[in-house]
From TrEMBL:
<feature type="domain" description="Thiolase C-terminal">
    <location>
        <begin position="265"/>
        <end position="386"/>
    </location>
</feature>
<protein>
    <recommendedName>
        <fullName>Acetyl-CoA acetyltransferase</fullName>
    </recommendedName>
</protein>
<comment type="similarity">
    <text>Belongs to the thiolase-like superfamily. Thiolase family.</text>
</comment>
<feature type="active site" description="Proton acceptor">
    <location>
        <position position="343"/>
    </location>
</feature>
<dbReference type="Pfam" id="PF00108">
    <property type="entry name" value="Thiolase_N"/>
</dbReference>
<dbReference type="Pfam" id="PF02803">
    <property type="entry name" value="Thiolase_C"/>
</dbReference>
<feature type="domain" description="Thiolase N-terminal">
    <location>
        <begin position="6"/>
        <end position="257"/>
    </location>
</feature>
<dbReference type="GO" id="GO:0016747">
    <property type="term" value="F:acyltransferase activity, transferring groups other than amino-acyl groups"/>
</dbReference>
<dbReference type="InterPro" id="IPR002155">
    <property type="entry name" value="Thiolase"/>
</dbReference>
<feature type="active site" description="Proton acceptor">
    <location>
        <position position="373"/>
    </location>
</feature>
<dbReference type="InterPro" id="IPR020616">
    <property type="entry name" value="Thiolase_N"/>
</dbReference>
<feature type="active site" description="Acyl-thioester intermediate">
    <location>
        <position position="94"/>
    </location>
</feature>
<dbReference type="InterPro" id="IPR020617">
    <property type="entry name" value="Thiolase_C"/>
</dbReference>
<keyword id="KW-0808">Transferase</keyword>
<dbReference type="InterPro" id="IPR020613">
    <property type="entry name" value="Thiolase_CS"/>
</dbReference>
<dbReference type="InterPro" id="IPR016039">
    <property type="entry name" value="Thiolase-like"/>
</dbReference>
<keyword id="KW-0012">Acyltransferase</keyword>
Length: 387
């Protein structure tokens, strides 16, 4: 439990763009800046009123090229915040913007801050995930990502998210057919949510895009069955993995004092949060212990939670999590997930939380839990309580 209440008083996002889609040519700072500017405008903190913001914490995984040089600070200034407002960029791999929320909440709960913008951005069309994986060779001295001490501990075996996801499918006995059913459901749920306008209140129009580009109405089990596995002899295909995407999202977190002083309307409060390390070879099993940890912190059981958002890095990750935690499809990723909606790396944690906040309020549900696997074998988990 946090030492003091921390409220979510705003949560917005861009629509998620497909690779080479409507957001592909945008500068990441502009994309993030548009989202943060709308967040502050909705809260009545645009312009000079933004001096009340203590910090901007933004997640970004591939911090090279247009996403380098502390993108959080550039986003803050691009959003029109006064120059007195600082910014810091966070890399906890896919959980970077969820970690930004955690750091922001910790600052507020400790009394060191009252208002913090927490979010993330990634334009993967410009900077694909492979760029960060090879940055040592490209921009350093030809060094591999792992060194001699790593090799002494883990050997020279392949360490990739693809192998990790396949190992999870093998270890939990998850079939390709089961994963394809899961992937189809992700698209079906996302398309239904779009048709019902369930994302409309959370999406900021950026570059004319107001609708997530990832969900595919023409996806079928028959088409997925025709795809070749990502690895020889494996069962994972591109259809069972999250999409390469462009996007940004941001939340405004506030102390109780800031809520009163600025006349803000709480949407939700952070009930509990946690982060864990996990097997770096399988890499993606962290959401299981992270969920268990944060439930214990909150004094809740999984049955007490109304809605779960578990990042769909791969279908096998969520299916293994469901088996271990005992949560069905009726409460998990009910509006679709990253297989359909996309996964703009550093922006996804904030995207998931934005969707969760809005859906909790829309449905009148009390508790929502978000968790996501992360490169290197880690995971964040957060429990929100509707205000």
């Amino acid at each position: 439990m946090l030492a003091g209440p921390v409220y979510v008083v705003g949560a917005v996002r861009s629509a998620v763009g497909r690779r080479k889609g409507a957001l592909a040519r945008m500068h990441p700072a502009d994309l993030g800046g548009h989202v943060v500017a709308e967040l502050l405008d909705r809260a009545g903190l645009a312009g000079e009123a933004g001096r009340a913001v203590d910090d901007v914490m933004f997640g970004c995984v591939s911090q090279i090229g247009a996403q380098s040089t502390n993108i959080a600070r550039i986003v803050a200034l691009s959003a029109g915040l006064p120059e007195s407002v600082p910014g810091t960029t966070i890399d906890r791999q896919c959980g970077s913007s969820q970690q930004a929320v955690h750091f922001a909440a910790q600052g507020i709960a400790s009394g060191e801050a009252d208002l913090v913008v927490a979010g993330g951005v990634e334009v993967m069309t410009r900077i694909p995930i492979a760029s960060s994986a090879t940055v040592g060779a490209e921009h350093g001295m030809g060094l591999p990502r792992e060194g001699e001490l790593w090799a002494k501990r883990y050997g020279n075996q392949e360490i990739t998210q693809f192998r990790g996801a396949q190992l999870i499918a093998d270890d939990w006995g998850i079939s390709r057919a089961e994963m394809e059913e899961f992937a189809l459901r992700s698209h079906t749920c996302a398309l239904a949510a779009q048709e019902q306008g369930l994302f409309d209140s959370e999406i900021v129009a950026v570059n004319g895009l107001v609708r997530d580009e990832g969900p595919r109405a023409d996806t079928t089990l028959e088409k997925m069955a025709e795809l070749k596995p990502l690895t020889e002899g494996g069962s994972l295909t591109a259809a069972l993995a999250s999409q390469i995407s462009d996007g940004a999202a941001a939340l405004l977190l506030a102390s109780e004092d800031a809520v009163q002083r600025h006349g803000l309307a709480p949407l939700a409060s952070i009930r509990a949060m946690g982060v864990v390390g996990s097997d770096p070879v399988r890499m993606l099993t962290g959401p299981i212990p992270a969920t268990e940890k944060v439930l214990a912190k909150a004094g809740l059981a999984a049955s007490d939670v109304d809605l779960f958002e578990v990042n769909e890095a791969f279908a096998s990750v969520v299916l293994a999590w469901q088996r271990e935690i005992g949560v069905g499809a009726d409460r998990t990723n009910v509006l679709g997930g990253a297989i359909a909606l996309g996964h703009p790396l550093g922006g996804t944690g904030a995207r998931l939380m934005t969707t969760l906040v809005h859906h909790l309020r829309r449905t009148g549900s009390r508790y929502g839990l978000q968790t996501m696997c992360e490169g290197g074998g880690m995971a964040n988990a957060t429990i929100l309580e509707r205000a």
